[in-house]
Write a structure and sequence with these properties.
alpha/beta; Nucleotidyltransferase, domain 5; 5 strands
Amino acid sequence: MPNPTTPLTHLEFDIKYMHIQGQRRNAMMLTVLDVKSRFNVGWLMQWSIKKEDVVALFQDIQRSLPMVTKITVRSDNGSQFVSHLVREHFAANGIEHEFTRPATPEQNAHIESYHSIVESVICRQYTFTDLRHANDVLTRWVQFYNLGRIHSGVGYVSPAEYLRRNNVSLPQNHHSTTRLTNLSIN
């Protein structure tokens, strides 16, 4: 289990399937979570997630958040995560990539816990009509999760408040880093 001493130095990321009832298919949600603060630093939901989407999300995160010089990321061995493109991006940006052992979700416990919360609070409570509806609901959820939901693991404050108390300033209006590719918004 990672035990970082500083926020935004150790991130976990994973993909969760979200059922879109109105279209009778699953979408994929990629989430990147800071282990120390539990802050959702970025996410995207679309019909499929490819290695290029993983790189693009991390590029968005690196542009929008005050990053430290040494970052470690952890993921499972999903095909999107083990690709040469993702490995090259991380190496070129000084990001160390750790992989969990197969069939050991506890090694990525923070992101697994976050996705479990999303399952119980969002997926079981909403019937999504389309991808846009799901993205709208999740945008509001991530804003609440980061700014208002208290966590016992960070001293019974919100992730944003934990970061503030640890002298990490977030960009104004930063609620999540979302990329809505494969989604037409009129």
